[in-house]
Amino acid sequence: MKGKVVKLLMVFIMTFSIFTGFMNKNTYTQANASDNYLTNIKKKGTIVMGTAPDYPPYEFTKNEGGQAKVMGADIELAKQIAKNMGVKLKIKSMSFDSLLVALQTGKVDMVIAGLTRTPERAKSVDFTIPYYNGGQSLLINSNDSSIKSYKDLANQPVGVQTGSTQYNLVKKQVKNPSIKGMESVNDLVLALKTNKVKAVAVESATGEAYAANTQGIKAIDAKFNTAKAQNVVAFHKGATSLVNAANKTIKASNESHEFVDKFIPTASKEMGTSAKKQKISVWQQMYNYKDYFIKGTEYTILISIIGTILGLIVGILLALMRLSKNKFFHAIAVAYIEFIRGTPLMVQIMFVYFGLGTIVNVPALTSGIIAVFINSGAYVAEIIRSGIESIDDGQSEAARSLGFSNHQTMQIVVLPQAIKNILPALGNEFVSLIKESSIVSIIGVTDLIYQLRIVQADTYQGVVPIFIVMVIYFILTFGISRLLGLFERRLRHE
């Protein structure tokens, strides 16, 4: 039977790979034959920009009337590109290392995120001409006088953003570095302040922004052996019409020095400031962002509740299929359960959002919910199966002797007793689901973790927002555990 399950899994994976490969190949063939990208964008009336808003002054978030507004020099350039195309700009935020994947799978139309051109990236996407030439800096602790350039980081832990140009610079030029790659610059700065890394490599303008607003750190010239970083806009491979249209805007901006003389200075003035500069306490600053935490909590609860309900339905169905004498249904259930339990939830979320995005466009929130209940269903199925198998066979035999059908026996006799037995395990699954749902933030779902990143980026506070989110998660999980415990005790008395 195990051999059949493995074969079934292999057939499923191969079929999906061939189908997806065909779709991608067909898409690229059409794109190369006839570039209708700009025409389609104009028909749609909107161009979607992907960015990671934790890189001031290029892109960052600011609290305006309780709403998180993405701002920055790159945003102003994107507005100008959209205006010249005659369309509206829509901004979609996600982690930096997911941006090019989002572009390739059609989730966004262009990426502007302090991105630089590399030969590897150029194989997957198309780039515009450079719109800004920036230098490279190192963020170090203010009392650290041992670091003068990248050469002093030999054999030292260095923080860099995953997938960034700085990651490659450190890897190639620093002697034997211990690279600590993270998705968020905010996390890297926190790692620096807590002495987890010796320095953080960032672009010069970003380094100056963090140094000016974060107590205890400073920015120095990294002195890497390279030309200045050239920031570019990325488009889908083959989208020559969009590249040409954007190049016209960038060329005009370069000629007038608009990005350097206007966009960056304006963004620097608009950036959020630390509590110290605002002359308020950190807790008062956090209170000003209460709406962010409330919104994140609402989304976390929504995803958890829907994921639990649908996961329970899927779990019951899979458990019955696995217990079925029908070999086909049994094999399907086993393959599903083993495959889902054998892969991380993060990978499943990215597959649903980006992988299935090559076939059908699924919104981020919907993708997160789908991945969560698909994952939960596999674990719930095993919990329910163990509960059903814990019921003595005599119960089923007695029910059938009274004239009950197999369906009635399962529905009236077995399942009610099994649910009593497995309620604690189901409760634990629900509590775990609340915590695990935090992973959906990687695709831009505005849950608690996503809002945490926004607050960190806007306030330059690292630890306090984390503490607040920890408390919120504890209140949610502890409260649900108490309610489930009360319900369990009532069932025992019945």
Automatic annotation (TrEMBL):
Chief location bin: membrane
Keyword Repeat: no
Lineage top rank: taxon: Bacteria
Cellular compartment(s): Cell membrane
Protein topology in the membrane: Multi-pass membrane protein
BP-aspect Gene Ontology terms: amino acid transport
GO cellular component: ATP-binding cassette (ABC) transporter complex
Transmembrane regions listed in the UniProt entry: 5-23, 299-321, 362-381, 462-484
Signal peptide limits: none
Family: Belongs to the binding-protein-dependent transport system permease family. HisMQ subfamily.
UniProt name for this protein: ABC transporter substrate-binding protein/permease
